[in-house]
Design brief:
By secondary structure, this protein is an alpha/beta fold. The protein has helices at residues 2-18, 22-27, 33-66, 68-83, 96-102, 110-116, 131-147, 188-196, 209-221, 223-232, 238-251, 257-261, 277-285, 405-417, 432-435, 459-472, 474-482, 497-506, 524-531, and strands at 106-107, 157-159, 203-205, 267-269, 272-273, 292-294, 297-300, 303-307, 318-319, 326-333, 336-337, 354-361, 366-380, 383-391, 423-431, 445-452, 489-492. It has two domains: 42-84 and 94-114 and 129-326, no CATH class; 405-532, no CATH class. Mean pLDDT is 83; it is low at 16-32 and 109-128.
Length: 536
């Protein structure tokens, strides 16, 4: 009986291999029911394979998360074995002390790298191939299907950026599932055009939220050209009607645009990484109002750090899993890293505490502080469940005040609420020494903002940010009172300024973008780019 089932499975897989790609089958469905039947069969087989692979990964996660200490010790021994060489063989125990002695902790802060001016190797693609990324992709798809059962139906999803938000490419034959567009082969404009031609979409994908924000801003700017391209793309009746629907949807403004274009849309899928929170907030308040947001994983500079099993959660929380790469946690004190503290393993994490992630890479055998700070909010078996707080490399400090990324963002949010009609789209910060803008006065922050709903900032509104910074940071307030730090200067930049910044970042060898979006700029040419686009 088992042999018969295996033969049947083999026949189904061979049939899937021999069938044309699913996208081709969809294009030929109108030619007759035969093609529609074949497309349906291909999708069903692909879905069964995905379910089997996800179930296997779920069992592996359950086993490893129930015995986190044992799983991490196995990974630790693997790292030590890789570090062992013919000239320095390891002897004795392979405990945490031995591990720390052979692989000392280094601090690879992006801020320090940028300040040094060193050219680094180009950042790896966000397709972090490996066991952790494959597990995050398979379990993320299964969780997404459970929360939104129709999303993975044929033609239910479209990716509008050349790179997918899923950390690992889907293994064959699962790539046949649901996609209307095929990332990696087309420019974002062409991918968006394909998505606009499919009114029945239930999920929209983009590599990161800031890139999805750029897509919607581009859609508004180039709406008429896209409508003309849709109308001219096919002489059939549905497409001219679709072009008219696009024009009508754009005329009603940005709020709720996604649901007007795709009435069945349920969720936007983007990869969570540093600096994405305000893009998610802007999209949720305007273009993607009414949609859920889901990130299958959290990507830090070292790769995939955590996987998301809860698409229904309004804010992403992630399971830190044992296995390769080895993740340690470094306790963080109020305002800064605790230099004297030793790292702990995942099983020792305490709920409510904040930790900096430490990653040991098997390939380079480096054990680095990533700068990403997490707070433990729960547990999955013995694994900590965390939310990401901010990045230590994105700290502002002109007089040693150490204004953390999350603290600054809180102050900026308080200020924007007091700017009548304004919605924050993007921001970037520069310490005045980078632009030589102090002019003999006290050092200060230069803050560049992109807004919707407000075309000019009065001096009174600009001053509100400095007041909010003093509210959230007693140290900053004390320095301002003594005159050691000058008031923050706020500049409104034009539309497209941050898109140009991201293009410049992507071309910069020392940049962490993509997927991380830096909010504190330490290269003068990047700061000058924003400065050149100031409106007021």
């Amino acid at each position: 009986m088992l042999l018969l089932l295996l033969l049947l499975l083999l026949l189904l897989v061979l049939l899937l291999l021999l069938l044309p790609p699913l996208a081709v089958l969809r294009q030929q469905q109108s030619q007759g029911p035969r093609w529609s039947w074949l497309a349906g069969l291909q999708h069903r087989v692909a879905w069964e394979v995905l379910c089997w692979a996800a179930a296997w990964q779920q069992r592996r996660l359950e086993q490893s998360s129930l015995h986190v200490g044992q799983s991490q010790r196995q990974t630790l021994r693997g790292c030590l074995k890789e570090a062992q060489g013919p000239r320095c063989p390891l002897t004795g125990s392979t405990d945490m002390t031995t591990f720390r002695n052979h692989l000392p902790l280094t601090k690879a802060s992006q801020a320090q790298e940028e300040e040094s001016g060193e050219r680094l190797l180009p950042p790896t693609s966000n397709q972090h191939h490996g066991e952790a990324s494959l597990q995050a992709t398979l379990l993320g798809l299964a969780a997404l299907n459970k929360a939104y059962p129709e999303v993975l139906a044929p033609g239910g999803m479209a990716c509008v950026t050349p790179t997918s938000p899923w950390p690992h490419p889907l293994p064959w034959p699962c790539h046949a599932l649901s996609q209307v567009t095929h990332p990696g082969s087309k420019a974002p404009g062409a991918l968006l055009l394909e998505a606009l031609r499919s009114p029945g979409l239930r999920a929209l994908e983009a590599r990161t939220a800031v890139e999805l924000l750029d897509i919607f801003l581009g859609l508004e700017a180039n709406g008429e050209k896209l409508a003309e391209a849709i109308a001219a793309g096919n002489p059939g009746a549905p497409l001219p009607r679709r072009a008219a629907e696009l024009r009508e949807a754009l005329e009603q403004g940005p709020r709720g645009l996604a649901l007007r274009l795709w009435p069945k849309m349920q969720v936007a899928v983007t990869l969570d990484a540093g600096g994405q929170a305000e893009a998610v907030a802007a999209l949720g308040a305007l273009w993607c109002q009414g949609l859920a947001f889901f990130s299958p994983a959290y990507a830090a500079s070292g790769g995939v750090m955590g996987l998301n099993l809860w698409p229904e959660q309004p804010h992403g929380v992630y399971v830190l899993t044992p296995g390769a790469p080895l993740i340690e946690l470094l306790p963080v004190k109020e305002g800064d890293r605790e230099e004297a503290a030793a790292t702990i393993l995942l099983a020792e994490a305490q709920k409510g505490k904040e930790y900096e992630l430490v990653l040991t890479d098997h390939a380079s055998l480096t054990r680095c502080c990533l700068g990403d700070v997490v707070q433990v909010v729960g547990a999955y078996n013995q694994c900590p469940v965390v939310r990401f707080v901010g990045r230590l490399g994105q700290t502002l400090s002109v007089r040693g005040e150490d204004m953390r990324e999350d603290v600054f963002f809180e102050a900026l949010g308080r200020a924007v609420v007091q700017w009548p009609g304004a919605k924050l789209l993007d921001h970037g910060c520069v310490e005045s020494s980078i632009l030589d803008s102090s002019g003999g006065s006290a050092p200060h922050y230069e803050v560049f903002v992109a807004l919707r709903g407000l075309r000019n900032l009065s001096e009174e509104n600009r001053d509100k940010l400095d007041h909010c910074l003093q509210e959230v940071s007693p140290c900053y307030k004390s320095l301002r009172f003594r005159g050691s730090v000058g008031p923050a200067r706020v500049h409104l930049v034009g539309q497209g300024a941050f898109r140009e910044l991201r293009e410049a970042l992507a071309a910069c060898p020392s940049s962490c973008f993509p997927p991380e979006m830096p909010r504190v700029l330490r290269h003068r040419h990047l700061a000058r780019l924003l400065q050149s686009r100031v409106l007021s």
